[in-house]
Amino acid sequence: xxxxxxxxxxxxxxxxxxxxxxxxxxxxxxxxxxxxxxxxxxxxxxxxxxxxxxxxxxxxxxxxxxxxxxxxxxxxxxxxxxxxxxxxxxxxxxxxxxxxxxxxxxxxxxxxxxxxxxxxxxxxxxxxxxxxxxxxxxxxxxxxxxxxxxxxxxxxxxxxxxxxxxxxxxxxxxxxxxxxxxxxxxxxxxxxxxxxxxxxxxxxxxxxxx
Length: 210
What we know:
Layout: E1 6-8, H1 20-28, E2 32-36, E3 41-44, E4 56-61, E5 66-73, E6 76-84, H2 87-108, H3 128-147, E7 150-155, H4 162-166, H5 185-192
Parallel strand pairs: 1-3, 4-7
Antiparallel strand pairs: 2-3, 4-5, 5-6
Helix pairs in contact: 2-3
């Protein structure tokens, strides 16, 4: 899918996004200039009176490693991107800093009594790797709202309870008593596969766990 191009007028008011061919035409005729590379935004060389752009919807599909972003005009996707998070890099950097500080304390103040109760966390504290995801998504929302007439924001929040999908009546301690409860692992696997080979479906052969 080829993303549409964001357009703002001389007063930096967001207008309706346009196809890339139309943007190239405006740039060629010098009626507009490139304003930003990514997301690609062009700025018109005149003011649009009463622009009244069509409101768009921005949707987010959050994930631990990547977050999907899409801008929709009703059911039509006009811009999409994938935002990669660097939570693991932040975690590795914090662990490296912690080991260096611990080593320095052991060298410089090896006889000092340990102190573990001199730090407090604010209410609503999040680990830096998670806070990075929140702030990054928030920054992209603000950025896209500057260049597109966003009228609605939606985020997909989905939770799957796989045990409840199999048994809607499951509750409480029953979550700890799944399919393997009461079975040895080998017997469970043999019964699950009908005491057949999982690759060739042969019966009556000696089944050996690898």
